[in-house]
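Study this:
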Amino acid sequence: MPSTTNLSVKETETPLRDFELLDCIPLPTRILTLTDEGKPVYYQLNKMAIQNTGMPLSEILGKSAEEIFPDQFGQIATQYHLDGFRSKKLLTYTHKMQLPAGLRTVQTSLCPVKTEVGEPEYLVATTMDITDQKRNEAQWLKAETINQEIKDFTALTAHDLRGPMRRVGMFADLLNEDFKDLGDGKKQMISTIKDTSERALKQISSLLEYSASIATSLSDITTFDLDLMCADLFNLCDPLRNHYLTRQSASITADRTAVQIILRNLIDNAIKHNYPESIALHVKVEKSLKLPGQLVYTLSDNGDSDVAELLNDAPLEFLESEIGLRSIQRLLTSRGGSLSLKPATDGFGAIAQFSLPGKIN
């Protein structure tokens, strides 16, 4: 599918002027154009976009995002609009936006529309509210972490119960040896104790098997592109583009949700622990040489963060992007993976590596 739309001027003498069709789009949609000075300004909005903005159309048309929204969002949006015109290809980014419904997380797609001359003349921007999706992601990890804690507690408790229960059966066997049945029911009581201990051991084993099956049933195994995932994560963690971010392009089949959550938090941690300095980060993936069927993801940076400080990162509340390395470790453990942090070999920056089951296509 082409990344831009070819719009013939001969077919429509007034391109994009029939704006009634815009109101049929079930997403807030805006059309931008460039002024003679090269400034991206709003050319038209559909009804959902006007309602979403909470401003009359007369206060929007002919103005740039930074003129309408005199905050950080306006500056970020204007920069992306310029990038959309210059790149001449579809551009998608995620950002925060203050709407009448409150502070929301939205994903915006910018599609250049070019005339038969070939130069982008318009930019069609559609916005999707993904606040609930991000919140569900955090709740998913919270549930996953709680599930892992329950599994750990169950395994520990079952292990503690197995020993005493086996000893109860052994004591019953010792009592039963050379025991004279006097017809008072005591020998039957010893047999009952033995049977009860055996049934309890079976129930403990069944509980452990059920716990293990639940822990592995929440995986989201799918095929995805690591490059596209990282691009979206970088836009979310570094909307002002203060950092230099590169990534490997690879098609992967793995637990997409787990990889996304872990990468996002590692990237966010690297930026947070090096603030306000700009850093360069790189993400790559490769097959594990030690563990067949596992992939090793590496995030390296050239910052000044202390690895010991990162390792001691206390568990945080389950906010959208701040989950904490301890919770990440629990998530990896429940998926059969692991996490390691170490200083870079040249002494500058840190290297975070985590492994998860998966394959590179």
The chain has nine helices and 13 strands. The mean pLDDT is 77. The CA atoms of residues 272 and 305 lie 9 Å apart. Residues 134-215 form one domain.
